[in-house]
Structures are given as C-alpha cells and as structure tokens.
Amino acid sequence: MVRRLLHAGHDVVVFDPNPAACSSVAAHGARIASSAAEVARATDLTISIVMDDRILRRVALAEDGVLAGASPGHLYCDLSTVSPMASAEVADRAAEAEVSYLRGKVAGSVPLAEAGTLTVFTSGERADHDRAMPVLSALGERVLYVGGGEASHFLKLAHSVLVAGYAALVGEAITLAHRGGVDYDLAIDVLESGPLASRQLTLKAPLLHSREFAEPPSDIDTAAKDLDLVLASSRAARVPMPLTGLVRELMAGEQAHGDGASDIWSVIRAFERLAGPASPHTSDEPR
C-alpha cells in the first residue's frame, strides 16, 4: 500500500515498530519517522492500519501516538479492522484535539493491494472523505462513502462474516460430495464452473486443489480475531448471529489443532476430520 502511494506521487512518511518493515518501503522512497506522532507532525493526513483494538489505542492515543503529534485540522484515517467501540473511543479523543477522524476500511487481498485495486470504504464526515480521496484513490479502484460514525466498521465486519462463512460452507459442501463418491478435484471444478460459481471460489479453487495452506494471504488466526469482533459488536447491537458463532467454533477447533497460521480455506480440514478417517485428504500429502 505504501508503494502504491509512492507510485502515485505522494510524499510518504512511515513508522512501524518493526524497522525491517520501514526499511522495505524506504528503499522505494518513503521517509522513516521515529514515532506515529512524528508522522502526524510531518503530514496533513495520517493513515494507520493495525491488527487489533489494543494496537489502535497505542498508535492513536499514546503519548507518542498520532493524536499527540497532530495539529488542529489534521486528518486521521484509520483503515484497521477493529471494533466499533475502540474506533468510537479514538473518535472522541480526536474531536477533543480538533482532529478530523475518518474511519476507512479496505477489502481485498495482498495482490489487489499491490495492484492498487482494493475496495475502500469510509464513514465519518463526508467532507473528510472527499479530502482523503486523492490518497485513498491510489489504494483502491473503488472508494466509497458509506455513512456517518462507525458505519464502515459494521460493513467491514459484515465482509468478514462472508469471508469466513463462505470458506466454511464451501469446505463442508466439498467434503459431502467427496465422501459421497465424487472425485475431490472434480467436485471443486464442477462447483467452480457451475451456476453457483463466484469470484471468490474461482480465486480459491487452485488453493483447494493444491492444498498448500501454509503461506496464506489471510490465516485462520486473523479470521478468528475478526469473528470475535463481529460477535462482540453484534451482541452490543443486539443482532443474533448464530451461524457466525458456529463458524467461529470451527476456527477455534482448527486453532486447537495447531492450524491457526494456515489459510482460512484450510477450514475444509475441520469437516474432513469431523467426517472421520475415511478421506484421503485429511493430510496435505500431494495427490
């Protein structure tokens, strides 16, 4: 994403606690700051994208965080998948500092990020969205404003529900077909090419064929974290989500089995294990 911004001609200042992460983009022209506060002092717009609520609070609210370095009128856009509750806390502190706070979210994979073709959506003040457009349009081919407040967080959580739920549903369906006597690879091909085909299944069909789940763009641990956010947020909003709760339990089983770092689509192995030892695909031996 930083390389996309540099390619678009933006002057980019970066900070990451991991020096190697900064060095990799400094080689492409980014300037390195010593803290998130220093990034905010050096720019008119600061973007953060982190793993969870705890890190967001650290990056945004700490003594050397974004809000500590941002002047009144600064625009802060957070792209992280975090809880609406943590984001609302940052929003309150940003308002106290007279800093504009835009909740931004991205949907897509690492290849889409590298190509600058992510889908980006934001919520907050429409004027802040418009102000951020020249930067966000370098990251995504579609940049959408979806409403005020924490709307983008709930939309991203809905996206996470579909990502995890679809992977689980496809895994369950393929396991049924295979145990019913259909060749494993043929089952994938028929589902991927038939009337129920989707862009996601077409993208993931080669992975299901190869079963090379060890170096994923998105792993089960991350999906589980996202579903925990979904379920906490749904409880706060009083929205029952029984299917998502079941998918989260499947992910917990995979984590307990030692597969948390595997691709989210490796959840098919959960159904194969539940079905018993008859399947030759309960291991990842090449076929």
Automatic annotation (TrEMBL):
Pfam family of the protein (one): NAD_binding_11
GO molecular function: NAD binding; NADP binding; oxidoreductase activity
Protein name: Putative hydroxyacid oxidoreductase
Source organism: Nostocoides japonicum T1-X7
Domain of life assignment: Bacteria
Domain named 3-hydroxyisobutyrate dehydrogenase-like NAD-binding: residues: 152-270
Active site: 156
Keywords: NAD, Oxidoreductase
Segments forming domain 6-phosphogluconate dehydrogenase NADP-binding: 1-147
Upper classification of the organism: Bacteria, Bacillati, Actinomycetota, Actinomycetes, Micrococcales
Family: Belongs to the HIBADH-related family.
